[in-house]
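Ferrous iron transporter FeoA-like domain-containing protein (bioreactor metagenome), 74 aa
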Amino acid sequence: MCPITVMPEGSEVTVARVTGGGEASKRLSELGLVPGVQVSVVQNGGGPLLLKVGDSRFALGQGMALKVFVDGAC
């Protein structure tokens, strides 16, 4: 398990855990980043990550992205 920030562009990963609490966890949940969901890493160039969850695409800053842990080869 590793943070989604280390995954290269084009990766298809499954969310394993979301850390933290309060507003951050609530916001990530509203975006669909919950355990068990499949996520595509569209862009990861050191700044905000561009992620695709289902039919939605959104940017996630590095700080928030560090709270999302995924299954996969780290």
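Residues 2-70 form a domain with the SH3 type barrels. fold (CATH 2.30.30.90). The chain has a mean pLDDT of 93. ok done for today
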